[in-house]
Input
Amino acid sequence: MAARKPLIAGNWKMFGRQASLSEIKALWESVGRAAGGVDALICPPACYIGQAAWAAKGTGVLIGAQDCSAVQDDSARTGEISAAMLADAGARYVIVGHSERRSLHGESSELVRRKAEAALAAGLTPIVCVGETEAERTAGRVAEVVGGQVRDSVPDGNAGVVVAYEPVWAIGGSSTPTVAEIAEVHAVVRGTLAERFGDRANATRILYGGSVGPKNAAEIFAAEGVDGALVGRASLKAADFAAIILGHPAAK
Ligand code: PEP
Output
């Protein structure tokens, strides 16, 4: 089996302005060739994707989106942005099913799966987010919840999908699961993918997300089955994001 190339993705959420795009060049100046061993990705707000793709030209930084429409055909959908448009603007990846979309915008796993299908049809790599709430963890339902989300959100065929395990309670806070807990859930994700896709599941990259920063990145990257990270706050500043990337053994 070919080794899975680590992916370290930054999710800028609804932060930043045009001036923030200078962080892309600054990131590349900090990580440079060392980042050759990993895929470094920044997902700015959709309105900046075209400019971000220009800013990333000549660097190894990849650009992605934070969401896309589940509708594949050009049609009358005011406010929607199709995966094909994002690809046309220079995106290579798109995050789908982030917990903020699931909880604040009522997105179901079925909708997330259709978004991932739309992404694949447009030639984008979907990063399908899954993760349990604090109440679900306390109730001992992590495997059931995360396994169910993987079953329902990852499209049939599984070609080129990335899965991000992001415990909802760890996002935007200060606590993270232990390395052992992260490894345990990553094994659940891989096992669920293997039930559906057999050996092909070995090719799927599984990221960890939730309060990753320069201080804990190396420890998290060392956890069994972790193929990289999805990073929120700490991806906004090139210095922090570079320190995270350089914390990966493949970027040495
Ligand atoms: C996220 O929003 O995907 C995330 C992981 O955020 P943070 O790194 O800020 O916890």
Notes: Residues 11, 166, 171-172, 209-212, 230-234 surround phosphoenolpyruvate (CB under 6 Å). The first strand starts at residue 7 and ends at 11. Strands lie at 7-11, 39-43, 62-65, 93-96, 125-130, 162-165, 205-209, 228-231. DSSP finds ten helices and eight strands in the chain.
